[in-house]
Structures are given as C-alpha cells and as structure tokens.
TrEMBL record, chain A:
Protein name, entry field: ER membrane protein complex subunit 7 beta-sandwich domain-containing protein
Organism: Xylona heveae (strain CBS 132557 / TC161)
Chain segments annotated as coiled-coil in the UniProt record: none
Keyword Signal: yes
Membrane association type: Single-pass membrane protein
Location in the cell: Membrane
Signal peptide: 1-23
Pfam families: EMC7_beta-sandw
Residue ranges of domain ER membrane protein complex subunit 7 beta-sandwich in the record: 44-177
Lineage: Eukaryota, Fungi, Dikarya, Ascomycota, Pezizomycotina
TrEMBL record, chain B:
Protein name in UniProt: ER membrane protein complex subunit 1
Membrane-spanning parts: 937-955
BP GO terms, sorted: protein folding in endoplasmic reticulum
Keyword Transmembrane: yes
Membrane disposition: Single-pass type I membrane protein
Residue span(s) of domain EMC1 first beta-propeller: 19-427
Pfam families documented for this protein: Beta-prop_EMC1_N, EMC1_C
Alphabetic keyword roster: Endoplasmic reticulum, Glycoprotein, Membrane, Signal, Transmembrane, Transmembrane helix
Organism: Xylona heveae (strain CBS 132557 / TC161)
Signal peptide (UniProt feature, chain positions): 1-19
PANTHER family: ER MEMBRANE PROTEIN COMPLEX SUBUNIT 1
Residue ranges annotated for the ER membrane protein complex subunit 1 C-terminal domain, each copy included: 739-964
Length: 250, 967
C-alpha cells in the first residue's frame, strides 16, 4: 500500500515556519475534477456546495471556492468522515486520517529563505468509505494533494407524470386480453367456416355440453365473493361453497 | 374502516412513495429565501463584473448572512452564512471599485467571495481578537497590474492590530501592532496612506482621538497625533464617522448633547467646529454623516440631523488645497423620519433623500433639486425608512433616474424606482420564533349551522334547514354564471387552483392561515393556499434595538390567537384581521414555558413559571399531569391545581449520574390512530402499544460520549423502555420524533475502541416500534381487561415489546417531525431537516419498518405486508426531498397540519427561511391528479357513443335478417 504524504502548511513566510515546526498545522485540499458528468466544476457547482469533515467532538466546514476546490486549514489530528453536500450532485464519502505519523521533511532549496528548514508534516491519508462497511475496513488509498473527489450521480428531484400514450395502453394486460378476445370473436366464425362439417358438429356438441355448469357457476361465485372471509384468510375454497349455495337456492 | 385501511395499504403499495412532480414544484409550495434585515454599513450596490453595467445589491445582514440580491426583481442570487450568532454591528462588508469580489469580516474571520456567484475566493482566520474594521485599499500603486485590491483590517478589543491582506490570497503582507493600550477604533485610507484611529482614555473621563499614519507599503508608523476631544467624546458612539477611500478622509464627532459637530481632516491637526441647527429648539437625537467611498470623487459630505419629529441635513465641502471644511448648503427641514444615501457617478456625488412621502435627488455641488418623485404603491407610508442605498443614472438632458433599496422600520427591504414600488423582501420573516395554524371560516360556518340543526327538535331543525337552503339559493345565479369558466378551468387549466378571493377555506382544506410571530415583535398571517402570501402584518410590541421578542407560547383558539412572552405579557389578536383584541400586562414571575391543554373542547394556554408552578384555569380537569424540566435538571411530572398558581409533584425522573437531559419528546396533539393492530401477512395481528402519554427523554453524558433514550409514561413516570448508544457526539444535534406506536431518533455515532457493535463512523437513524406483545394475536397482560390505569401498581409489569432497527444515513438531521393527516389512515412520513444540504426530506414510514427481514429476503407473507430486506444504509432518495431544488436554509422548526383530504398534510417550516408545501405520503388517492385526462375521458365517451350510434342499426338489421334467414 502506497501512502502519499502532504507537506503541511509551511506558512508563506519564513519567520513563522520555525514555530509551525512544533505545532504542525495541516492544510487539506479537495478538488472536484472535471468529468463527463460534471465538465466544469468551478462554474457549475452551486455556491452552497460545502464540505464537512466530522469526527467525535470535532467538525470543520469549507465552502466551495471559485476554482472548484475546498480548502481547510489547521485541521487537528484525527480520523474524519469527509462528505460534500451539494444541491445538484451526490458525492462519495471519504475517510480522511490526519496526523498520527509525523515526519520531518527538509524543505527543498526552492527559495533561499526556506532552504534547509526542517518542518514537521502531518500525514494525510484518504480512502473512499461506504456507510455499511466497518471504519477499519479501508480500501485503496487515494492521492491526497489534492484529494480528488468526483460526483457519483446527478440528483433527480422530480418525478415525471406519466401522460397518456397509446403505447402505454397497449402495455396494459387487460387491454391486450380485450384485444385478443375481440380478435377471437371476429376471427372464429371465419375459422369455423373453413373447418370441415364433421369437426364443426363435434365442436357444437362440446359447446352445448360445457355451457350449462361452468360459466354460470363461476359468475355466481364472483358475485357472492365473501370479502371478509378472504381477508380473514379462510382457507376453504369460496368458489366451491358459494356455487353449491347458489345451486341450492335454485 | 378496516376495509378502508386495507385499501389505503394497497394504494400505498402500488405507489410506494410520494414524490414531487415537475409540474407541481413551485406551484403548490412556497419559499421565502431570506437574509435577515440589512444593515446600513454593510449594504451597497456593486457591479460584479466591471465590463457589465448590471449591478447587484449586496448586504451582510443582522443575522450574519452575506447575500446578493438581483435589484431587478428582488430574487436572491447567492448567500453564505458568515457569522452565526455573532454581534452584527461588528460585521463589515466592502467591495473595491471594479472588483469582482466582496470582502467580509465578522468575528476573527475575514473572507472574500466572488461577487457574481458567491463562491469563496479566500478566507483566513486570525487570532488577534474580533475584527473592528475592514477597508479595501484603493491605492494609486495598485492600479496597473494588480489582479485584486488589497484589504486592510483592524482586529482586537484592547490591543489593535492592523493587517494588510493580499487581495488575491488573503495572506498577510504586513501587520502593525499597537502596544499603547489605546482602544482600537477604525482604520481609514486615503490615496497615499493608511490611518489607524484609536481612542486614548483621558485622565478623568472621555477619550482622545489618536490618529496614527502608517505607510501603505510597509506598515511602518510615519506619524501620529492626538486630538483633544475628551470633553466631547465621552463615549465611543459619539464619534460619528471615519471616512475612508477619499482624497481626504475625515473624522467627525459630536458632543453628548448633540449641539456641535466637529470635523478633523485626517493628517492635519486642525478641528473645524460647526453648530448643529436648532431653529425650533427641538433636540437632535441622532446625527449621521454620509460621504462617498470612492477615492476620486469630489470631497463633499452630508450631515443628517434627526430629531424626534423632523429631520434636516447640511452639505459640507472640503477644500483640498487649503485643507478646510466649509458648509455649502442645507436641505430643508421635513417632518417625520427620513434617510439619505450617497451615490457616486464618476466624480460626481449625489444625495438621495427619502421620506415617507417622496424621494428627492440633489447633487453635492448645489442645492438645486435634480429630481423629485412622490412615493407610490410602497408601504413606506406605513413604516418609516430606516436606511437606504441608491443608484443614480444620468439620462439624456438633465433628467435622472434613481432606484433605492430602503430598509423600513418593520424590517422589510423595498426597492423603489423613481418613487414607484418595485419589489419588497419580507426580511423580518427571517426571525420567526413561533408559528401555528388557523382554520379559515366557511367550513366552520357550515359546521356551526349543522350543529344548530343537530341540537334542535326535528321541526325547527327542518325549518332551519329549509331556510339555509333558501339562503343558499341567493348564490345560485352567480354560481351558474361562474359554471362555464369553472368547467373550462377544470378541463384545460390547473384544476387544483384554490380560490383566493376573500378569506374563505377551499373545499379540500388546503387553505389555512399560518400565524407567525417574529423576533422583532411582529405577528403575521401567511396564506398557505396562496403561495404563502402575507395576509396581514401587525407590529405588536415595540422592542428596543437589538432586543428580541421572547415568545414562549402561541395558541390559536377559535377566532383569536394568543401569544405569551417570557414576561407573562400576553397579546390576543383577531385571526382574520390581525387586530389587537386584548393585552395582558407583564407579570412579576418569569414564564419559563407554556403548555396547551384541551379540556371539554376548550383549548387553554398554561404558563409554567420559573419556580415550577403552573397557572391553571378553573375549567381544567383535576389530575392533569404536565411534564416540565426542573431546575435541578430532572424531568418532573406535576399535577395542576384548577384555578390556582401552584403545582403538585407526582413523579420525578433523574437521569443517571453524569448525564443530563437534552430533550423531551411527546406525541403530537393530533395523532389519530386508524388501526389498533398491524395485520401480518398470515392474517394474524400484532397489537400496537398505544399510549397517549408516551414521553421520550433524551439524556447524554458529555464525558463518556454516551446517549440514552428513556421512554416514560408521563402520567405515572414509569420507565417503559431504555436504549443506549456509545460514541455519540453530544455536541451535535440529537433529534427525535414520537408518533402512534413508534419513535425515531438520529445522532452522530463514532467508532468505539473495543466495541463489537460501534465499528463505523457516521450519522445514524434508529426507529423503534412498540407492541403489546411479542406474539401475534396476543394482547399481553392487558388482554382480558376492560379498564386500565397507568398509575396502578401492576402497570409496571406491562412493558411494551420493542423492536428496533438502525440505519446509517448520509447526513445530519437537525430536526424531525411527523406528517399529520385527518384520520391517520394514510401512512406517515418522517420529515427531517437536513441543515448541511439546506433541504427537508420526507422519509416514508414503510422504509423505516423495524420488522424488515434481516439477512434474508422476505417471505411471501412478509412481502405482502410490504416488507423488504433490511440494508444497513438508508440513502435519501432525491425524490423524497420535498424542498426539491429550493435551498431552504436555517430551518429550526417544521410544523404539520391535516387537511380535509385524508391523503394530504400541510407542512410549514421556519427559522431563517420560510417554506410551506403539502405532502401526500400515500399519494393523492382521494383526489384526481393532474395526470387524469378529463378531455381524454370525455373524448373516449364521445367515441364510444359514436361507435354505438353507427353499430346499433347494423346489429339490428343483422338480427332481423337472422330471424328471417334461420332454417
């Protein structure tokens, strides 16, 4: 595992660099990269977008800056949950650990005034975290200077009303059933006409036999449906009972 | 009822959650995005882009909120919270000329914000005490290639520290520390140097003004002089003005009796003295000095004298070469209050005078009136202007146009363009301290009539009814006249439009009045049916500056609303008009809180005094127990004594050692329960533990970071259930809600070393349900009883069976409420205020069912109940957010109210912003939605009719033919 360190807060002037050597203050930078979901984070994120860093008893807040970054200064040591609240996008949550491993870094001789001053820097580590995993269960570490935090999805606040469309009508099973039966009504006579007379006679016979009991019984059971019994979860077959009743009453 | 309940369940299953429809958003809800009352010294017009002529109106309000408002329509462009709860008088806001950023300072925090979109440019915190002043340096040196102008700030309460900050990064360029022990007062800058003004305490009393000149480049002290002002300046507020960013900045002061005005040009020791005009002998109570803040403007300034009944002004000119100040002209005395504002156009300086009657524009060079506009259509006639800012445009010829943003005594912010009212922002609503719903008439009228009929004998009731119907006939012609337009409206238009003529309720009960009391002593009525329009506003109490109205209780009782404050003072207003009906004077004992008690249909507001006694009216039932938080930190149940100011302790709940009570939650007054049990998938019933006297006590231990919830019976004080959590941030909001047979709470939970359960970090939401027994179809100990009392000895045995589940939630919840519907049949929603994302989320109760199967998929029986597999996280679906794209900030309290429709609940949220909407947690099952195509329905009926008309003769012919042709 590769830990990236962030050289902390060597303040801009040399005189105070010595004092910060003892009490290391940390600058945490988080940048929103340009992605296909959010091509221009600096301009398109609303001004109310803010970052919060929370742990037990401590919390920090940073508003978004013009260039689409968040900066927090003087963050104390601790293991923090980093979250971004935004009106338009959902951001992932990060675990950010600050401190713990303090190391001495000799400032590179970039500017003559700062050259050779040893500064204590605090280590910043960041991982993406998920709310249903244990805190100790970290994954791959993220680059930390700056931490890159891209939004996951755009927030969709509204539900579209389903308007009327003929296609949605066709998707309805009742309509489909109706259409099929309509087709049968108009189609059957044609089919029957094309059948040979013997077969036709046989079918007629069958229909005459089947008519009497089946359909009227089903209709009767439907009319005498016992709602209360059904709600109470009676297991007996209501259709059998009611059909026998109806027959008796005749 | 049972059938109805099950059909509601089916409906809620079909459409799982309520969500905001695109076409309803911004129509059924209302929102006032507020800033708080603007302050004179932190409000100005500024062009956010030097290339564009359009300017925005910026303010850092009394609430410590920095915001930009579009002067065209008064809409909020952006806002940022700078200082919450910090004294606003020590807040500063400046914008350099042609700069694209505004710089604000409040407390020890200085920040620069992009003027156009409100994003942070830089921010910096210093440990030198609170900011005392802030100026943007308009130095000649910085004109050529500096990207941003530097800022000079003064910090400290006892030892002044002047810092020059880099305008682009906020880093310190130099600092000057005043070691003399003089009181730091202000900084000022001219084109060449920086002046640090401090107050040197004189030997006996008063202050000497000390001016230290600093080098702008290095911060080194280049000069210092002291003015002998100790005879005049006995207190710091007698210093009227310290100019800045002027060719020659001035310091002006007066004497305690406001008789003379003394002016010193910074850099010289000379003091010019002028007499305050006092022709009528009336005492001048306030002197305000107005000067331009632009470095190359002409060096003129205006002095505004305000006396109790009139005001006047004088304009002074500074002679730059001679270094003298002279009076140029004076403006006539006018009755009433007035304000002046300074505007600079190029080098010219204009003064705009606004009174309750008119706006007058004068140039600083001469007293000729350039423009005069009578005020039209603005409420300036009622409320006097307090301060204002103006923008002047010179048109062709010698005509001018002026637009002024004026703050009124009421706290309202109005833009007046050439005397015409343009827009108004109700900034006083930013401090709502109490709110309640009031039913509108009509429905009450009918209810009253029906009641009359119900109580009379049959014959007279019948006559009464016939008479009522005859009376109703009077409205028939008008009703018929309106019919076509109503039909057309219902077919093609917005069918849910609520009639807004007159104050009458609509047939769905969506229209109610929301009565609010604001901290500046005003009471207002908002119309929930007409996008929160203000129906009336009454100033009830005239509070001194900086004081807040300490409202302890508010009760709408019939046609009147009672508001009681901490002093025991009570005001009664008429609900429909806002007329003050009655005032009760303050009482010697301090009111700690109030309670609303209903007895025989009569509501009364009881005062709970500091000494834990309660003043109860005669009619109150004996044995009424009221829970209060005692002075010793315990929760106490006390009985009231009818008609007396006393109380009888019944029980006391002491939190465990080291813990303190942070919250008491009880069920809402209107919390109907539709079904006493929950029908399971196998048709067995879990009986709910329904106790109207449930009380949820929240206790925390700051040392151990633990949180406990104790569920009490408020009549007996018995503890029914206790839950504890470790690793809880006790400083963050811990919120809870209690309804029906369930309660929820939310908090920050951290990792606890060595614990097996507390292994993750984040916000948690816990939901718990109470049942009479763990076994279905069993009523526990109460099963066979007809009567039950919670003060029986055996009552302690009857503990509810509690099941709970916890969820990890993405954000902090800072407030919780439950929706209310008329019968309680509709499933409830938990309304949670999300302070970090400025939203209110409605979490469906179904999602928060603690019986969700853990670690397995639901059985078919469970699926029938609507249960689905438990997952430990609960993400807030954006479609649950009832505030949708609106940013509703700073919400303290959410109240709900049922409507006449069972499906719908009204919601009103207040705090900083004001937001109102209506929600239907199980969707609108009792009203046709917009998606119902009435035109399509009629079209279909017509098509079917046409089909029948065509087919009927064909069928008839065929049947006749069949008769003839049959074998």
């Amino acid at each position: 595992m590769r830990f990236l360190t962030l050289s902390a807060a060597a303040l801009s002037f040399a005189a105070s660099a010595i004092t910060t050597a003892t009490a290391a203050s940390t600058i945490l930078r988080v940048a929103v990269p340009s992605t296909s979901l959010l091509p221009n984070p600096g301009a398109s994120l609303p001004a109310s977008t803010k970052l919060t860093l929370t742990t037990l008893g401590k919390d920090y807040e940073a508003p978004i800056s013009r260039d689409g970054t968040f900066t927090l200064r003087n963050v104390e040591e601790g293991s923090y949950l980093l979250s971004v609240a935004c009106l338009d996008y959902i951001f992932p949550k990060l675990r950010v650990d600050i401190g713990g491993d303090v190391e001495l870094v000799t400032t590179e001789a970039g500017s003559p005034a700062d050259a050779g001053i040893e500064t204590k820097v605090q280590m910043i580590k960041a991982w993406q975290t998920f709310p249903d995993t244990e805190w100790a269960n970290t994954g791959e570490t993220q680059a930390v200077d700056p931490i890159s935090l891209a939004p996951l999805v755009k927030k969709e606040y509204y539900v579209k009303r389903e308007g009327f469309s003929p296609l949605s009508l066709l998707r309805n099973p009742m309509i489909l059933l109706g259409l099929a039966s309509l087709g049968l009504i108009f189609g059957m006579p044609k089919v029957m006409d094309n059948l040979d007379p013997e077969m036709k006679a046989e079918l007629e016979e069958q229909r005459r036999n089947g008519m009497g009991s089946g359909s009227s019984a089903a209709a009767a059971s439907f009319q005498n449906f016992d709602m209360a019994a059904w709600l109470a979860g009676k297991n007996s077959n209501p259709s059998a009972e009611s059909s026998s009743d109806s027959r008796k009453s005749r | 009822m049972r059938l109805f309940a099950s059909s509601a369940l089916v409906l809620s299953l079909l459409s799982p959650v309520y969500a905001v429809f695109q076409d309803e958003a911004y129509h059924t809800d209302f929102h006032h995005a507020l800033l708080g009352t603007p302050q004179e010294h932190t409000t100005f017009f500024h062009r956010p882009q030097s290339v564009s002529k359009a300017s925005l109106l910026y303010t850092l309000s009394e609430k410590g909120i920095l915001g930009a408002v579009n002067p065209r329509n008064g809409s909020l462009v952006w806002r940022q919270v700078l200082g919450d709860g910090l004294p606003p008088t020590n807040a500063f806001l400046r914008a350099g000329e042609d700069e694209d950023a505004v710089v604000g300072a409040i407390g020890d925090h200085v920040s620069s914000w992009s003027a156009l979109d409100g994003k942070l440019v830089w921010s910096n915190v210093f440990g030198d005490g609170p900011a005392r002043d802030l100026e943007v340096l308009e130095l000649e040196e910085g004109k050529v290639n500096r990207p941003a102008k530097d800022v000079v700030t003064l910090f400290g309460t006892e030892k002044g520290v002047v810092k020059r900050l880099d305008g682009a990064t906020g880093d310190v360029k130099w600092e000057f520390k005043d070691q003399s022990g003089d009181l730091p007062y202000q900084v000022s800058s001219s084109a060449t140097s920086i002046y640090y003004i401090s107050l040197h305490p004189a030997l006996i009393k008063g202050y000497k003004i000390k001016v230290t000149t600093l080098d702008a480049l290095t911060g080194a002290q280049t000069g210092q002089y002291t003015l002998n002002t100790d005879s005049d300046v006995t207190s710091a507020d007698l210093i009227l003005f310290v100019g800045s960013n002027a060719a020659l900045p001035v310091v002006a002061w007066t004497d305690p009796s406001h008789k003379t005005l003394k002016v010193n040009l910074l850099g010289s020791r000379q003091i010019s003295t002028f007499n305050v005009p006092s022709e009528s002998g009336e005492r001048v109570e306030k002197i305000i000095l107005h000067a331009p803040h632009v470095i190359n403007s002409v060096p003129h300034f205006l002095v505004h004298y305000q006396s109790p009944s009139s005001h006047s002004a004088e304009v002074y000119h500074i002679d730059l070469s001679a270094g003298t100040v002279s009076k140029a002209y004076s403006l006539p005395k006018l009755a009433g209050k007035g304000t002046f504002s300074t505007t600079t156009v190029d080098a010219n300086v204009f003064f705009t005078r606004s009174t309750q009657e008119e706006f007058v524009l004068v140039s600083s060079a001469s007293h000729g009136i350039l423009g005069r506009w009578p005020v039209r259509g603005a409420s300036l006639a009622i409320d006097a202007p307090v301060h204002g800012v103006s923008e002047v445009v010179a048109k062709t010829g010698s005509t001018y146009a002026v637009r002024s943003a004026v703050t009124l005594t009421s706290g309202e912010w109005q833009l007046i363009r050439n005397g015409d009212f343009d827009w108004s922002r109700p900034e006083y609503l930013a401090g709502v301290v109490a709110a309640d719903w009031a039913e509108l008439e009509e429905q009450k009228d009918l209810a009253r009539e029906l009641e009359v009929e119900g109580h009379e004998n049959v014959l007279s009731a019948y006559i009464h009814r016939v008479k009522r119907h005859l009376r109703d006939l009077e409205g028939l012609p008008a009703w018929i006249q309106r019919l076509p337009s109503r039909l057309a409206g219902s077919l093609f238009g917005d069918h849910n439009v609520i009639p807004t003529d007159g104050l009458h309720a609509d047939s769905f009960g969506f229209r109610k009045l929301i009565l609010v009391a604001t901290e500046n002593g005003r009471v207002l009525a908002l119309d929930s049916g007409d996008v929160g329009k203000i129906v009336w506003a009454t100033t009830v109490i005239d509070l001194g500056p900086g004081k807040k109205w300490d409202v302890k209780g508010m009760l709408v009782n019939g046609d009147a609303v009672q508001i009681r404050s901490g002093t025991g003072e009570q005001v009664t207003l008429e609900v429909l008009t806002g007329k003050v009906l009655q005032r009760e004077p303050a009482k010697p004992a301090k009111v700690e809180s109030t309670a609303i008690i209903e007895e025989a249909g009569q509501l009364s507001l009881l005062s709970i005094y500091e000494d834990e006694t309660i003043e109860a009216p005669e009619l109150i039932g004996e044995g009424t127990v009221i829970v209060l938080q005692g002075k010793n930190g315990n929760a106490k149940g006390v009985q009231v004594v009818p008609g007396q100011k006393s109380s009888v302790p019944v029980w006391e709940f002491a939190p465990p050692a080291g813990e303190r009570i942070v919250g008491l939650t009880s069920r809402a007054a209107h919390d109907p329960v539709a079904s006493i049990g929950k029908v399971l998938g196998d048709r067995s019933v879990m009986y709910k533990y329904l106790n109207p006297n449930l009380l949820l006590v929240t206790t925390v231990s700051d040392a151990q970071s633990t949180l406990s919830f104790h569920l009490l019976d408020s009549t007996s004080g018995n503890v029914l259930y206790t839950a504890s959590h470790e690793g809880v941030a006790t400083s963050r909001p811990i919120t809870s809600a209690l309804s029906e047979n369930w309660f929820t709470y939310a908090f920050w939970a951290d990792v606890v070393e060595g614990s097996t359960s507390a292994t993750s970090k984040g916000y948690q939401l816990v939901v718990a349900e109470l049942y009479e027994s763990s076994i279905p179809n069993d009523r526990g100990l109460l099963g066979s009883r007809n009567n039950y009392s919670s003060v029986d000895a055996s009552a302690t045995d009857n503990q509810p069976h509690v099941i709970s589940q916890a969820y990890r939630i993405p954000e902090e919840i800072s407030g919780m409420t439950v929706t209310q519907t008329r019968q309680g049949i509709t499933s409830r929603e938990l309304l949670c205020t999300l302070s970090s994302s400025n939203a209110i989320v409605a979490i469906p109760r179904m999602v928060l069912d603690p019986r969700r199967p853990l670690g397995r998929d639901p059985t078919p029986a469970e699926a029938e109940e609507g249960l689905f597999r438990y997952v430990p996280t609960l993400e807030f679906n954006p479609q649950w957010i009832i505030t949708h794209k609106r940013e509703v900030a700073g919400i303290d309290q959410v109240i709900t109210s049922p409507t006449l429709l069972e499906s719908t609940s009204l919601v009103f949220a207040y705090g900083l912003d004001v937001f109102g909407t209506r929600v239907a947690p199980s969707r609108q099952f009792d009203i046709l939605g917009k998606e119902f195509g009435k035109v399509q329905l009629i079209g279909t009926v017509l098509a079917v009719a046409a089909g029948v008309a065509i087919l009927a003769p064909m069928v008839r012919r065929k049947q006749i033919n069949a008769q003839w042709q049959s074998p």
